[in-house]
Structures are given as C-alpha cells and as structure tokens.
Amino acid sequence: MGLLDAKVSNRNVLVTSVDNVMNWARLSSLWPMGFGLACCAIEMMATNASNYDLERFGIFPRSSPRQSDLMIVAGTVTMKMAERVVTLYEQMPEPRYVLSMGSCSNCGGPYWDHGYHVLKGVDRVIPVDVYVPGCPPRPEALIGGLMKIQELIRMEGLGISREEALKKLAEKSVDAQQVLDQTRKAAIA
Amino acid sequence: MSPAVLESKAAYDIIKERFGDAVSEFDANPTMPFFEVLDASRWVDIALYMRDNSLLQFNYLACLSGMDYPEEEKLGIVCNLECIGKYTHKLAVKVKCQRDGGSIPSVSCVWHTANWHEREAYDMYGMVFEDHPDLRRILCPEDWTGYPLRKDYKVQETYHGIKVPY
C-alpha cells in the first residue's frame, strides 16, 4: 500500500506524490470489460464470484467499454470474433490494459496448428500487457495476473511511460523456479 | 443381422419397393444401417415419403453431416433419420453430388432441422442446396474463402489483414 508508507502528520495531513495517489486510485478500482469468449470465461466468472471475491481489489466487471480500463481476453479468439475484440478495445478510454487469459488467447492453444478459424494469439491484433498461462488458468492464476497489472499501474506515473514501467518491473522480476523451490521447502518444513 | 438392423431393413424394403432404382442396395452396417439415394433429384420425394408413410414415420432428423469424397470427385451428405413415437427403426441416407458446382435438393421443408444443418454443410463443403430458404454461411465469416472441411483445403494467408496460419 503506497499510501500507508506516506507520512501522516498529526493534523491529518497526508504528504505524498500525485503519482502515488493517482496510481493507488487507479489500481484499486480496476474495471474489466465484461465479456468472455470461451471456457476461460467460466473460470473468469468463478473468479468474480463470491468465493474468490475480486471486489476486495475493487475489481468489478463493467458492461460498457467506455468505462472500462482493463480488458480480460478470456478464451479462444476466432477470426470472426477478432475484429469485434479490436472494436471493443478501441472503444476503451486510455490508459487501458489488456490481460490475455489462457492458452487459446495467448497463442491459439490447441488450435495453434490445425485451427484455421482461430487467431494465433490475441497480441496479433491488440497489445497485451499480461499473459496468464493455463488451459484454463485457475482463479488464483487470474488473480495473480490482475495483481501483475496492478503492479504495472503502480510503476507508471506522470512522465513515466508504459515501456519504462515495464522495464522497471523486469528489473524486479523473480525466477519462478526459485519461488516454487522456496514454497516447496516451506511446505516440507 | 441384429434385431435393430432387421428393423431398419424392413423400413428400407418399403422405400425400395416404392422408389426402385432411385435408391441403392441396403448396407447392413451394425452401427448405422444406410442406403444411398442414386437419383438425387428424387431425394425430396423420398424424404417426404419416409416422413409421411404410416409404416415409416421418420419424423426426426437426428443429424445431417457433409462428406467429401475426392477420389470419386463427389461431395455428399449423410442424414441420420429416426422415428420418435411409434417405431424404433433408424436409417442413414446418403446423397451425393458433383464436387465442382454440384447441388443437392434441400430437405429443409421436410425437416426444419435441416435448415441449419444444410447451411453448415454448405459452409464447410461448398455444395449448394437447391430451394434452401436461406443458404448463407453459418460458422465461418460471410467473406471467408474456401470450404474448410474439404480434404484438399488450404487455409488462406490473411483475413482482413490478420495473419491466419501459425
């Protein structure tokens, strides 16, 4: 929590940067565009349901692209649907983020070779910020991806572009295998 | 022949008696006994007869699928017909047409289910169904090139500027 690190004086005055407040506000009320394409959408709905409770992050699907800042591409993007996805993306105001959820949306999934009708990765038509692997990914994985988007938003700011923010994030990256090993060790101990 | 196939054979015999050379011999396939319509122009008559004859009553078109026979230079359909209610017999009917520019009479006026199924067969194989009320592509986009389930199908390189193959 960026704001909680800021110094609060005894007269309820909060000293922080504009970037900090703006980013905190943006990342705490992400409104994903509410649409699903295939089986991954079921998993996305489960994530939005009470059991996983995305609203604790302020993430709540919005039915209009004009008020959404995040697009979750959940499922198989067919050639027929690709243009509609692009239209939706273009209707979203900036700054906007795209999360590609599941193998189909990432790279065509099981249709990568023989599926003449499937777009081999949604990044062929719109820029993707975060890829969530899996077929379909579990809600935990999607939440992980959403938190990655939040991290990206936190890195951005006035005068700091998305590219620079991504570079900053890359510096902070951790080796997945290392995390797995640590978790396993902790589980055994 | 199993009792189920014998039942289908009995139904076939009634059709054969009425239409003679327009239909082929009976194939006692144990999973799905079938016959072929040799004279495709009589397909609608045969379909109506199969539906309306009180001894046949094939009132349910369970499935209509397309087929490609490149070695015969032909396209075709396979209709899985059943009776719901009085009888339990089942029959598959095959109808073929020329691979290039061929057409098969539509049976969407006989079984309404055929409407969408024939559109699908047209979309995937490219045969024309004569007198179909609404013969448009159903799965692929309207401006898609080629018929994806033909055995010699090659996917197009781009669609509206989007690269298609991997």
Automatic annotation (TrEMBL), chain B:
<dbReference type="GO" id="GO:0005886">
    <property type="term" value="C:plasma membrane"/>
</dbReference>
<dbReference type="InterPro" id="IPR001268">
    <property type="entry name" value="NADH_UbQ_OxRdtase_30kDa_su"/>
</dbReference>
<dbReference type="InterPro" id="IPR020396">
    <property type="entry name" value="NADH_UbQ_OxRdtase_CS"/>
</dbReference>
<dbReference type="GO" id="GO:0048038">
    <property type="term" value="F:quinone binding"/>
</dbReference>
<dbReference type="InterPro" id="IPR010218">
    <property type="entry name" value="NADH_DH_suC"/>
</dbReference>
<keyword id="KW-1278">Translocase</keyword>
<feature type="domain" description="NADH:ubiquinone oxidoreductase 30kDa subunit">
    <location>
        <begin position="39"/>
        <end position="158"/>
    </location>
</feature>
<keyword id="KW-0874">Quinone</keyword>
<keyword id="KW-1003">Cell membrane</keyword>
<keyword id="KW-0520">NAD</keyword>
<dbReference type="InterPro" id="IPR037232">
    <property type="entry name" value="NADH_quin_OxRdtase_su_C/D-like"/>
</dbReference>
<protein>
    <recommendedName>
        <fullName>NADH-quinone oxidoreductase subunit C</fullName>
        <ecNumber>7.1.1.-</ecNumber>
    </recommendedName>
</protein>
<keyword id="KW-0813">Transport</keyword>
<dbReference type="GO" id="GO:0050136">
    <property type="term" value="F:NADH dehydrogenase (quinone) (non-electrogenic) activity"/>
</dbReference>
<keyword id="KW-0472">Membrane</keyword>
<comment type="similarity">
    <text>Belongs to the complex I 30 kDa subunit family.</text>
</comment>
<dbReference type="Pfam" id="PF00329">
    <property type="entry name" value="Complex1_30kDa"/>
</dbReference>
<comment type="function">
    <text>NDH-1 shuttles electrons from NADH, via FMN and iron-sulfur (Fe-S) centers, to quinones in the respiratory chain. The immediate electron acceptor for the enzyme in this species is believed to be a menaquinone. Couples the redox reaction to proton translocation (for every two electrons transferred, four hydrogen ions are translocated across the cytoplasmic membrane), and thus conserves the redox energy in a proton gradient.</text>
</comment>
<dbReference type="GO" id="GO:0008137">
    <property type="term" value="F:NADH dehydrogenase (ubiquinone) activity"/>
</dbReference>
<comment type="subunit">
    <text>NDH-1 is composed of 14 different subunits. Subunits NuoB, C, D, E, F, and G constitute the peripheral sector of the complex.</text>
</comment>
<keyword id="KW-0997">Cell inner membrane</keyword>
